[in-house]
Amino acid sequence: MLKLDYANMLSDRVGEHGLDADHLDPRGEEAAGVAALTRKLSSTRGKGWERWRDLHREPMRSEHVRPIKQYVESHRGKFDNLVVLGIGGSALGNIALQSALNPATYNLIEPGAASKGQRTGSATRSALPRIFVVDNVDPAYFGGVLNYVLAADPTLERTLFNVISKSGETAETAAQFMVIRELLKARGRKGSDHVVACTDPAKGTMRQICNQEGYFTLPVPDGVGGRFSVLSPVGLFSAAMCGIDIEGLLDGASQMDEVCSREDMSKNPAATLAYLLVELGQSKGKVNHVMMPYCNAMYLLADWYRQLWAESLGKKSDLTGETVYAGFTPIKALGTTDQHSQVQLYREGPNDKVLGLVELAEEGWKSMPGGVGDANVQIPTGLNVEAIRYLEGKSMAALLHAEKRATEYALVESQRPNFTITFPKLDAVHVGQFITLWEMVTAYAGLMLNIDAYDQPAVELGKQATFGLMGRAGYEKHLKAVEQTLAATGYVI
Amino acid sequence: MLKLDYANMLSDRVGEHGLDADHLDPRGEEAAGVAALTRKLSSTRGKGWERWRDLHREPMRSEHVRPIKQYVESHRGKFDNLVVLGIGGSALGNIALQSALNPATYNLIEPGAASKGQRTGSATRSALPRIFVVDNVDPAYFGGVLNYVLAADPTLERTLFNVISKSGETAETAAQFMVIRELLKARGRKGSDHVVACTDPAKGTMRQICNQEGYFTLPVPDGVGGRFSVLSPVGLFSAAMCGIDIEGLLDGASQMDEVCSREDMSKNPAATLAYLLVELGQSKGKVNHVMMPYCNAMYLLADWYRQLWAESLGKKSDLTGETVYAGFTPIKALGTTDQHSQVQLYREGPNDKVLGLVELAEEGWKSMPGGVGDANVQIPTGLNVEAIRYLEGKSMAALLHAEKRATEYALVESQRPNFTITFPKLDAVHVGQFITLWEMVTAYAGLMLNIDAYDQPAVELGKQATFGLMGRAGYEKHLKAVEQTLAATGYVI
Predict the structure, then answer these.
(1) B310 and B422: one domain?
(2) Is residue A263 part of a domain?
(3) What is the pLDDT of residues B73-91, one digit of tens each?
(4) Which of A149, A328, B368, B403 gives a 20 to 30 Å CA spacing to B286?
(5) Rounded distance between C-alpha atoms, residue B453 and residue A356, angstroms
């Protein structure tokens, strides 16, 4: 299992900037309060917007995994390119899984070439498509990816598009979809052979289009919000297409769900982490939360976390209607890289952060192929230059670990609260655990802040203004409001 | 020229969360104070750690550009792979230039293939190497890149390594260098044919190694700190190797330098921006600074900015020795993508941010190839589904612009201060302007905060602790301190 070490969030380590360990006393009032939340969460699981908690359970598990596996198996070797069209919760999970569980050079490995350095078990890229998750309408980016795909596969015979949109009305995904539908048409391709849609199983604009065009569809289940959907077909389909062990992801989710259902807070990492983060935020002003993996493959997990954390907890009103401007600002960083960019600020700037360090145990690197001759990348002997001789014969994993520990130490010396999550191994099971851990921390934090962690009311106004600016009928008053509010001024250089 | 619009930082627009426009009165005390700083900066330019201001001027300009151009021209077509080894200021600028000025699919385009979608003028990838900037010691990442390069070029005949380290003692870069030196040796390659080093021209460990091994070297000039070095050979060499117009970068720097030397604050974007950001930080609690380009290619410019802003201004003590914990936390975001991830928080969470929106003018997209049939990517007509019909026949650039303007409007409605920087065109000249603008904003902000913007004292402790943990002689007491401070506790789940 993942390990959480929270010693550096306590006052023993970081003085007045940490929390007194008394608060965690299992017989204390706080622990009883947290236990009550655990009971509450188990009474609401699977209901309303908490259906995400059951994605790894039957019957949803089989309902999702079976058709995905059938599709993947019956289409093995048929596609060289998989282009995912989605944004926000319909993209960040896909990107995170790909980045965590496939090598950084995945797309560079030619289909058919030997796949050295690949971490997808026995699968080879010869049977796996390149993947592009195009989560923006930047025309140079979207157009550049399409041009690349068209150069590699001019007839689009070997290209699959995975459109992800519950409603079909998200402007970005709708626009992308309209472009690729036309591209396929222009090349005489049948859309139903080249589009897989993840969408509402029963209603909505995309559902209507899918029925009309005969696309193969997978459900975005009711009661599973975008930012909680990575372990539904939204995230699982593209992962499975690229050789990722989706059963492993769900197994990991199940394991972490169990651990995070424990009433004893001292044995429940989600409850403990949520309690400490909320308390340090509210009583010590630590409102910025940095996630800093010491592992490139985990870096984009932080983008997935950023949405979960920001959109769930960033709320103007609490459940009583009081204005609270709740929330914490998630920030991503990468070790060791950001030691040479952000750590100066993290140690000497405003003490307004909690740093979440994430690492892969030194043993864990050994099961990740990717090294040169050795999975750990040995630093050779023989250069024999005094100032850097101490590096000779060590492994890069050892250096990475020393840097992480040294940074942790330096942060404590500056009284900057931090915690560490350790992966024993970087595989689907542990990534599933990590995802579920943070979803559970979010659920707890929402209760502690007494806000609705499942809505996103502030996103509406921008959508309506976009409709107005794009000339959609019925939104003229929004266009007018934008023009009045942002009328030209002289404050321009 | 780039355009700065700061109207949304003023109280006219965002109420008590903005600054009153009176503060900007050209006859006022504040403007006089800022003008005095401008005079001060012009008296210190080119001296001490402000030599970066002269990188675009003679004699440094020619001293740098001439040998780079000679090398690039005499080695054209000789390399398929360029691997840059560096970290922090020796990597972030390289990555930013590459990402801003070459297409996202640059590395995927096979040498020899037609280079559709490429933005490097008449150059084709047939003469340009793939680029990998490996700014971490993650063994799976570093090893994965090396394995990929070795698979493509088993004898390393067509691979060039660019090692960037002023001292040669940065542990990460030293370790990487030791690995590639051995790889070249094992394949019987002459290091001097395959390594270009950017390092101190006169002294230090890397200088000593370069002299011994006969490497071609380019200077990291004295008085130019890592985070201010992108327009020196540190950033220019790899850019030039990949077809980027380095003279254009320096021309843009020169243009922006001139504008940012104007004593009249209302005509000087660096002075105005620094003043507003520092004032909003100090008097209104806006201590988090988000940089949010609406353009994928500009996204990694934000990583370069993050180092500049965090490491320069994040300081415990001011110049009088008083403890101030100065600094602002830089955060990167991407439009429209992060509208579906962060904007909920930015509108409804704590009002502790200033958002810097960066955009490419709608006309500017037209000169960026990358579209499908049309540089702007047209959204086709003919789907004819009511809810998304308003998108038909529009361009993706128009949608991107509408989303940006809608978000700006929504932020103002929530009284969240923000500004917009507009690129008329995304090319080397304007990227050079952008870099120099932010370097000048940083120099001004350092003076306004009365801190040393050019040191990074807090990075030392972690380095020493790393030496201790890695067993370097003379650092035993640091090892002991780490072990004592981070002794195991029971606060683990």
Answers:
(1) yes
(2) yes
(3) 999 999 999 999 999 999 9
(4) B403
(5) 27
Helix residue spans in A300-419 (DSSP H): 301-313, 343-348, 362-366, 396-413
* Domain boundary, last residue among B225, B249, B273: B249
What does pLDDT average to over chain B? 94
- Give the gap in angstroms from C-alpha A75 to the nearest C-alpha of chain B: 24
Beta strands at A195-199 and A216-219: parallel, antiparallel or unpaired: parallel
Domain termination residue (choose one: B210, B226, B249): B249
Most distant CA atoms of chain A, gap in Å: 74
Mean pLDDT calculated for residue range A160-167: 97
CA pair distance B299, A61, nearest whole angstrom: 37
pLDDT at residue A327 greater than cutoff 80: yes
What is the domain extent for residue B288?
3-46+252-449
Q: Answer yes or no: do A7 and A96 share one domain.
A: no
- B237 & B330 share domain: no
Whether A340 sits among the annotated catalytic residues: the reply is yes
Q: Taking the model in full, what pTM does it have?
A: 0.96
Q: How many other CB atoms are there within 10 angstroms of residue A489's CB atom?
A: 14
Alpha-carbon distance B429 to B97, whole Å?
12
Q: What is the CATH number of the domain that holds A175?
A: 3.40.50.10490
Q: Do A336 and B402 touch (CB under 8 A)?
A: no
Q: Is residue B280 part of a domain?
A: yes
pLDDT, residue A58, reads: 98
d(CA B177, CA A392) in angstroms, rounded, equals: 12
Q: Going by C-beta distance under 8 Å and a sequence separation of 6 or more, which residues neighbour residue B484?
A: none
The pLDDT of residue B112 is 47
Q: Which of A138-142, A159-163, A222-226, B116-120 has the lowest mean pLDDT?
A: B116-120
* Same domain (yes/no): A407, A390: yes
Asked if the structure places residue A477 within a domain, the reply is: no
Q: Are strands B81-85 and B216-219 parallel, antiparallel or unpaired?
A: unpaired
Q: Mark whether B419 and B270 lie in a shared domain.
A: yes
Question: Which residues on B lie below 8 Å from A342 (Cβ)?
Answer: 306-307, 310-311
Do residues B280 and B426 share a domain? yes
Alpha helices in A357-427 (DSSP H): 362-366, 396-413
Q: Which of A115, A215, A287, A388 to mutate to test the interface with B (most CBs of B within 10 A)?
A: A388
In a domain, A131, yes or no: yes
Q: At what angle do helices B428-449 and B301-313 cross, to 10 degrees?
A: 20
